[in-house]
Design goal:
Blueprint (H helix, E strand, L loop, with lengths): L1 H18 L12 H17 L3 H22 L26 H15 L4 H16 L5 H22 L4 H4 L58 H14 L3 H9 L7 E4 L2 E4 L5 H15 L4 H29 L4 H8 L19 H17 L5 E3 L10 E3 L2 H14 L5 H21 L4 H7 L1
């Protein structure tokens, strides 16, 4: 009897031990898991070769989904739904027993996976992250409820995304080269067709229209050596010919060309690279980590940066296919030096304005509002692509370097850079003035 009683007590103690709650509150505290998920989305964007504008769209909706979980579960954050164009205020019913940071991560994975092609690559990454989090003691019922809620929020964002005219634009006609003097034509070595000629028709998040911030048009086309246009082209020519190591390093660091093609003999193969938006989303992750931001602040930074990049690309592409300006490489080869080759490979779309200038300035403006003007960070975004780190004392310093890198690389005239910076700043300013993640700011604006 004593032995049986002893065994019974051991069993009771064993069951009690198994039922003991594990403190999982610290399973996710910072933005590590969200940043890792974003890195995987970046890898898939590179793998699937999405264009810079489409990549920005993917980042923006994925990040918005994660942020909306933060807003739904923390009253100190304001939902962006109802503030963004075409969106409706949504009061999500938050289950009592969920773990919000896990739900945000699930929302990000769920949304991002629906916007890319290579879903298995993202799903495998998600499963590994989820298994790691299970091992941190999150109970099964909490885990499942959290994932389900994240997917619910993700579905709401995906429903919102389906009304932005993206899917309709997939069937729009391709760009037809005009062959008019001074207009864009495909460039070597791949001579690819113009990318996303109808991107101006994509719904914006905040700016009134793609054409809200029209830039000054490029100078009149001319082949006269005394003309302004010829002098601008010659500036590109001389800049590349006389570039020192620092300028070449800057050009390569900010290349971010997902379409780079290499030709060896009769063989042509692609060199896959991060997009400009991917670089700035990486900077948003680096800034969040540098600032010791929690997962909610990280989600906020990702969402606002993604929105800024998206609207910047819509505005930029509107001008690109309005002016359809000839690229420096084409002009220089035809009128200055037929053997000349730029440092960077010319991307497959018109010249004016510089996408790097517009997108980088808009993203940098947003990140400055979030983390401050004097914010030193080490940009390691390009390390895995074989490039060294670069350090900056502010986001605007980084964006200025990104902009001028296009001159150093030989793929933009100066007006495209200067007007692009202006356009990007206007986009950033408007976004920051019209939407807010803080309830008190919403109240003040009313």
């Amino acid at each position: 009897m004593r032995i049986q009683r002893f065994i019974y007590i051991l069993l009771i103690l064993g069951v009690a031990a198994c039922q003991k709650q594990v403190d999982y509150s610290q399973a996710i505290t910072d933005g590590y898991y969200l940043s890792e998920a974003q890195d995987r989305i970046t890898e898939v964007i590179i793998h699937d070769i999405f264009s810079p504008p489409v990549a920005a769209r993917i980042y923006s909706y994925s990040s918005l989904a994660a942020y909306e979980v933060a807003a739904a579960t923390d009253p100190s954050y304001e939902s962006l739904l109802g503030q963004l164009k075409g969106s409706e205020k949504t009061n999500f019913e938050v289950p009592q027993d969920i773990y919000p940071p896990l739900a945000a991560l699930a929302a990000y994975y769920h949304t991002g996976t629906s916007l890319i092609f290579s879903e298995d690559m993202v799903n495998a990454h998600r499963d590994t992250a989820f298994e790691e989090l299970r091992e941190k003691g999150i109970p099964d019922d909490v885990f499942e409820a959290s994932v389900e809620f994240g997917q619910q929020v993700g579905n709401a964002i995906l429903a919102y995304s389906k009304k932005d005219n993206y899917h309709e634009s997939r069937s729009f006609p391709k760009y037809t080269v005009t062959n008019l003097p001074g207009t864009w034509e495909p460039t070597p070595p791949a001579y690819m067709e113009g990318i996303e000629p109808h991107w101006r028709t994509i719904r914006t998040y905040v700016i009134d229209s793609a054409a809200q911030f029209k830039v000054s048009p490029p100078p009149p086309f001319s082949t006269d050596p005394n003309s302004e246009f010829y002098k601008l082209a010659y500036e590109v020519y001389e800049t590349v010919n006389n570039a020192d190591k620092e300028k070449l390093d800057i050009a390569m660091f900010w290349d971010c060309n997902p379409y780079k093609m290499n030709v060896k003999g009769h063989v042509m193969f692609a060199e896959k690279k991060i997009t400009p938006g991917g670089h700035w989303m990486s900077i948003a992750a680096i800034a969040s980590k540098t600032a010791n931001a929690d997962w909610k602040k990280t989600a906020e930074a990702f969402a606002l940066t993604g929105i800024s990049l998206h609207d910047a690309f819509v505005a930029c592409w509107d001008e690109k296919y309005r002016s359809i300006l000839i690229r420096p490489e084409t002009y220089i080869n035809q009128y200055i030096d037929e053997e000349w080759v730029p440092v960077l490979q010319t991307p497959p779309f018109p010249e004016h304005t510089s996408g790097h200038s517009v997108a980088s300035t808009a993203a940098a403006y947003t990140l400055t509002q979030l983390f401050g003007e004097d914010f030193h960070f080490v940009d390691s975004s390009e390390v895995e692509y074989g490039l060294p780190i670069r350090e900056y004392n502010s986001f605007m310093e980084a964006s200025s370097e990104a902009a001028i890198s296009r001159l150093y690389g030989g793929i933009h005239y100066m007006p495209a850079i200067e007007e692009g910076v202006w356009q990007g700043k206007k986009v950033g300013e408007l976004i920051w003035s019209r939407i807010s993640t803080k309830p008190q700011n919403i109240a003040e604006n009313k």
